[in-house]
Amino acid sequence: MMKAPDAHRRGRGLLRVLNWILDVAVILAILLAMAYSIYSIWDNNSIYQAAMDLSARIRREKPEGEKPSFEDLQKINKDVCAWVTLEGTQIDNPVVQGSDNEEYLNKDVYGDYSLAGTLFLDTRCNRDFTDFNELIYGHHMDRHQMFGDLDLYLEKRFFDKHTDGMLLIPDQKIPVTVFSVMVVSSRDQWIFDPVAADEEPAAYLDYVGSESKYVRTDLLGKIKAEPERYHVLTLSTCSTYLDENRTIVLAAYELPERS
Fold this sequence. Notes:
By secondary structure, the chain is of the alpha+beta class.
């Protein structure tokens, strides 16, 4: 007659043990989630702090003067071929050209591993910037790092107000003027095949005119009329819309005659 109450008590004891185990498991899961969140925040901040420290360090080497010398920069890295600056943004960085378009995705200008990478010129483009279309890639990063600020041009008021920039190449200081912003697929042939634009500038410029989010039609018209005089600097970064999309900012420039 005493077996049923004993079994009942044992059942309740087992239930308490299982509840305790469940409580401990839940607490451990919460603690692990908190620890991972703290680590993720720390790791993310470390990446951005490293990028900001690198930017401050390399900007001390920025070429100056009307005929900027790249001698010191090329002692740091022979692949440095240019420096690009856009007014109203924090884009003020050296540009390299590697052996392929993968080399500088995760390598800084000093040759060290870096998730921020380096701004780099497409290998199909001439590093003297004499091609009709010169294509530069950079990671999209928050906190104004690398090409993160290209997104600013997607706002009409910013696009209208901020047009100026500067391209530095050895012995030349070249003003650039932003004339288009686009969001395109990463497989867009007109944008990501600079040779196609070089070979068919009129068709390329028609495409830009039709696909731009915002475009300065007056400058676009001038480039169409004199493609032998103007060059296009194409700046590309990942888009915040879709993983496969890219934000593109186009700027026009004229090469001064070499003395």
